[in-house]
Amino acid sequence: MSFSLVLSQTFERFGLQFINKRLYRKSYLTDQAERLMSPILAQYNELVGQYPTDADHRKAEENQLLFLIMIHWLSLQKGPPLKILDIGGRGGLFAYYCKSYGHDAYISDLEYILDQSPNKELLELLQVNNFALKVEAMKPLDIKGHKFDLITGFRTRFHSTLPFETGKEAEEHWGSDEWDFFLHDLASNVLTEQGKIFLMLNRLQEREKGEFVPEKLKALFRARGGRLRQNFLYFPNTKKIT
Hints:
By secondary structure, the chain is α/β, with parallel strands linked by helices. The chain is built from 10 helices and 7 strands.
């Protein structure tokens, strides 16, 4: 299982669980990922082999370890049962891991993504709860009456205002007003009182300049209680957002 490991020493100050480098050297996390994947690995690999590009195949392989690192950063492997929503969850692997540790996990994505092969078959294999959700600028989320303890999103593109097919250089992205509305909506209408948000941000305006997040957005996130480290954005106390 190949994966370029993300060093986690900085996350102790970030407010997430510190993962000792010795766990990497002892292959602890790799062993745990293999244990969780073993019941479904053959079928999983067969299905992800149906993704159309090499990039899709590589991400599907990397995610087997990446998502387990996320689980440990958030202490989900040992914490109390939570109701979790993974926005843009596609085939449902992160939610599958969360379920394996006793959580009530859901994924959401665009309707055509959920109905697309092999995502549809992966969700059936992993038996992950899912519902269609389109995240739009300045519009409240329709989360079907649910309330969640944790919202996650990994490499999502809901903040892009132009379709991917236009080309990355043509993409435009949410500014401060759109992000502020989104965060307030999550804190007020989607999350429970003690709810948290953890996002692995995808491409934002200034990534090509060596930054994942423009300075104006950094200021907004920090003003709302967010902790930003490279492309990881964590809100441990969303009361500060409202």
